[in-house]
């Protein structure tokens, strides 16, 4: 009798590096959940989320999204597009040149955060979830389902590092925590975007115009948010939305296209900024605009000193004060002991030259120092300036600056018969006082950007970079380090003084308390340095965007009261932890912080 045996079939175990998601459900089911949840979130914005108009934004209407519903609608629409692109829908491939999954995760997470923030705010402010209408429950469930589906999308898991079998419990814990963080980073990472194909010049210019138009709409919406809940929701949506666009590769493609037309991009950016006052119905937000430009211009001047030359200056706001005081003393203020009233061009020259002189006087004896020692000396200069103008009141010292009362009643500028202090009608639009100064400050910012670009690409700019990277090696190559650093200090001081001349007329009064090392409101030296580091040292757009964020966000977070600086500081710490090179980094610095990144074929120009 013959016995027939059947071999046992063994199921092969999955390979250790088999792509899988953070949540153990099939990838196709997760993608379907993410897509369906995103679509349902969009639909829910057309339903009522609460029954009463007591919650800001009036979310009681059907068929008409309002307030925070608009932000959820934008986030849900973006997530839906990325989900459809992940299915390979024809005509949507251009949305994800670096892959769709990471972009889906960011977009879905942003929509979930905004929706749940809104639902929780309604429940807390109105006294419980009973105040939610069906739309509120639907959006909460839809975004949660979409998030679960997005986290199930597969990714390549990194292999854990080996660990000593005899490691202590704490070492085991830190090892596991590091591996968990590596897995999370890999889950939200994307591949390298494919190179953007060359388009006709007119098509690329149209793309640049569209990007600038979107940027203007986003900035106008953010600066015009009318209540605290809406601004917090805007920050969530904008942050995750930018992350999604970045992971999809669209930001990289836009950067490549704009790099081919740098002059057109810069001119277009200034034209878009000039259109901002025409989007406002009054002068309220033009006030924020002009202060942001003053802050950004000074930060760009500091970027020459810190970003290009690598000199840590902790008293830079003093040069802004020198320019402001110098212009105020010769602009016809009744508080000025000189009793003169120079025209605008002469006051600008006085302010810029005064800052230049102070920059040379301070830099000449101190720039032979390096690192922390130079930082301490510049910090001392900033405090000496503030104390000096506080004491030159006729009692503790000569009567020049009127002491703590400052130079008051500074008259508005009058340029070629155009009074910047009164409203003017232009093309049916009423341009108020602050809008007038906004245009003037925009012109000065353009001059500063031009100086930065030309100097950064010049021979002296290359010398600054060499000094920043390795001063000893630069000196060995024949670069006169002291002369090069003194030029950087003088140019940066002059640009700060130029902005100070306009600040004096905008604020009507200059006082010593405006020029502190650190305070709750910019500009001060700490905020200026943070703007440069946050935006990206050595670039043009970085300090401009960093200054705008550092001025706008504290202004909008005043509802936090005593916790404002705490929340703001925590946000900066997290940003520096996960993106130390800044929001818009110079390619060289990005490679310094991320050695595993692919090296570019051609390194970008300094400041470009």
From TrEMBL:
InterPro entries: ABC_transp_permease (IPR001851), LivM-like (IPR043428). It is a multi-pass membrane protein. It is found in: Cell membrane. CDD domains: TM_PBP1_LivM_like (cd06581). Coiled coil: none annotated. The chain crosses the membrane at residues 32-54, 66-85, 106-124, 136-155, 202-224, 230-250, 262-279, 285-307, 314-332, 344-364, 371-389, 434-452, 486-506, 526-553, 560-578. Keywords: Cell membrane, Membrane, Transmembrane, Transmembrane helix. Its main location: membrane. It comes from the Bacteria. It holds the Pfam family BPD_transp_2. This is Branched-chain amino acid ABC transporter permease. It comes from Streptomyces labedae. The lineage of its organism: Bacteria, Bacillati, Actinomycetota, Actinomycetes, Kitasatosporales.
């Amino acid at each position: 009798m013959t016995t027939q045996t059947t071999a046992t079939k063994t199921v092969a175990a999955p390979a250790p590096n088999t792509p899988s998601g953070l949540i153990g459900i099939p990838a196709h089911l997760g993608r379907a959940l993410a897509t369906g949840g995103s679509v349902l979130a969009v639909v829910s914005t057309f339903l009522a989320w609460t029954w009463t108009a007591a919650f800001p934004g009036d979310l009681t209407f059907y068929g008409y999204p309002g307030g925070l519903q608009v932000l959820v609608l934008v986030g849900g629409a973006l997530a839906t597009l990325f989900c459809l692109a992940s299915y390979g829908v024809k005509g949507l491939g251009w949305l994800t040149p670096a892959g769709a999954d990471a972009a889906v995760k960011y977009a879905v997470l942003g929509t979930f955060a905004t929706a749940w923030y809104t639902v929780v705010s309604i429940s807390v402010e109105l006294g419980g979830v009973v105040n939610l209408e069906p739309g509120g429950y639907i959006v909460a469930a839809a975004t949660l389902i979409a998030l679960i589906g997005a986290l199930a999308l597969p990714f390549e898991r990194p292999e854990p590092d080996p660990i000593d079998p005899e490691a202590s419990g704490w070492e085991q814990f830190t090892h596991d925590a590091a591996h968990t963080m590596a897995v999370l980073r890999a889950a939200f990472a994307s591949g390298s975007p494919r190179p953007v194909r060359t388009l006709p010049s007119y098509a690329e210019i149209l793309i640049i115009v569209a990007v600038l138009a979107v940027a203007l709409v986003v900035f106008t919406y953010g600066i015009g948010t009318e209540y605290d809940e809406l601004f917090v929701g805007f920050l969530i949506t904008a942050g995750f939305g930018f992350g999604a666009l970045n992971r999809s590769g669209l930001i990289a493609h836009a950067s490549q296209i704009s790099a081919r037309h740098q002059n057109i991009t810069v001119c277009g950016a200034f034209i878009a900024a000039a259109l901002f006052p025409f989007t406002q119905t009054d002068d309220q937000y033009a006030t924020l605009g002009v202060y942001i430009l003053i802050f950004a211009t000074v930060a760009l001047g500091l970027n020459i000193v810190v970003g290009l030359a690598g000199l840590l200056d902790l008293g830079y706001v003093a040069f802004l004060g020198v320019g402001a005081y110098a212009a105020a003393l010769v602009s016809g203020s009744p508080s000025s002991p000189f009793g003169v009233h120079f025209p605008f061009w002469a006051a600008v020259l006085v302010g810029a030259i005064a800052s230049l002189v102070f920059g040379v006087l301070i830099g000449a004896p101190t720039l032979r120092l390096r690192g922390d020692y130079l930082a301490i000396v510049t910090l001392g200069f900033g405090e000496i300036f503030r104390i000096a103008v506080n004491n030159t009141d006729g009692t503790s010292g000569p009567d020049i600056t009127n002491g703590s009362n400052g130079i008051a009643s500074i008259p508005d500028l009058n340029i070629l018969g155009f009074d910047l202090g009164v409203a003017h009608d232009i093309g049916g639009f009423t341009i108020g006082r602050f809008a007038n100064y906004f245009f003037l400050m925009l012109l000065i910012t353009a001059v500063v950007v031009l100086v930065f670009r030309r100097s950064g690409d010049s021979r002296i700019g290359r010398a600054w970079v060499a000094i920043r990277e390795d001063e000893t090696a630069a000196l060995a190559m024949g670069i006169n380090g002291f002369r090069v650093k003194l030029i950087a200090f003088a140019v940066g001081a002059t640009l700060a003084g130029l902005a100070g001349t306009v600040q004096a007329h905008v604020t009507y009064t200059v006082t010593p308390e405006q020029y502190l090392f650190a305070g709750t409101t910019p500009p001060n030296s700490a905020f200026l340095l943070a703007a440069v580091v946050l935006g990206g040292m050595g670039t043009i757009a970085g300090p401009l965007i960093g200054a705008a964020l550092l001025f706008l966000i504290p202004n909008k977070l005043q509802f936090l009261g005593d916790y404002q600086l705490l929340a703001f500081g925590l946000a900066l710490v997290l940003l520096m932890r996960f993106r130390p090179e800044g929001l818009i980094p110079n390619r060289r610095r990005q490679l310094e912080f991320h050695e595993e990144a692919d090296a570019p074929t051609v390194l970008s120009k300094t400041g470009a």
